[in-house]
Amino acid sequence: MKESHTLKTAVLPFSYYQNQDVLFLAQDLLGKILYTNINGQVTAGIIVETEAYMGAVDKASHAYGGRRTARTETLYLQGGTSYVYLCYGIHYLFNIVTAREGEPHAVLIRGVEPFKGIDIIEKRRGLKASNPRISSGPGSAAKALGIDITFNKKELNHDEIWVEDHGIRYSDDLIASVPRVGVDYAEEHAALPWRFFVKANIYVSKPNKF
Q1: DSSP state, residue 209
Q2: Which ranges constitute the DSSP H helices of the chain?
Q3: What does the pLDDT look like over 91-115, one tens digit per residue?
Q4: Residue 84 · residue 149 · CB < 8 Å
Q5: Each residue of 68-86: pLDDT tens digit?
Q6: Reported pTM
Q7: Which residues pair with 197 in a beta bridge?
């Protein structure tokens, strides 16, 4: 896909993230473009895979049961804030906090298609952009865009990190809805079909066959 010039008018407003329906946002974010600006180096990826986490009522959520810790406090901030945490002591995972302040919903970004600053992305990952592993899976997607723990609690405000709408849309038949990954501990909630991805996109983590 051809790179395009970043237009501030395309930046999603904070009102977008205030939507109380995290399942809607997790699907609607597919096709939106996630940007980072690190020391003047701008990189971006088209969001092609997400997972929804429905706050206090979701057994897979870090905030299940209204849990509040030093780490989960970020989830209680207003929608449009980034929630980044270290998984298994290895990978940083990037989430977008949604809904109003105090309602700990979030969308995990699981995969992006390299879009801008591809040479920088390739250097960060040590892989060519044609290799799906460069940005498939939440740890790889975050690393490709240079996202680490310093991005936790950042507002998506067109400064260091933001999301743009360039009019990329996928019809319902092109979007898969399946159970989330790595949440076996969530009992019956592990089977909820709250992972969404663009079918046949090579930057979606496995399994992605449909």
Answers
A1: -
A2: 14-17, 22-28, 118-125, 138-144
A3: 999 999 999 999 999 999 999 999 9
A4: yes
A5: 999 999 999 999 999 999 9
A6: 0.93
A7: 49, 176
DSSP string for 133-189: GGTBSHHHHHHHTT--GGGTT-B-SSSSEEEE--S----GGGEEEEPPSS-GGGGGG
User: Dihedral of the CA atoms 167, 45, 22, 195 (nearest 10)?
Assistant: 110
In contact, 207 and 175? CB cutoff 8 Å: no
**Residues in a beta bridge with 92:** 86
CA-closest candidate to residue 121, choices 41, 29, 1: 41
Q: How far apart are CA 99 and CA 46, in angstroms?
A: 22
Place of tokens 């159970």: 179
Bridge partner residues of 47 (DSSP): 112
DSSP 8: G
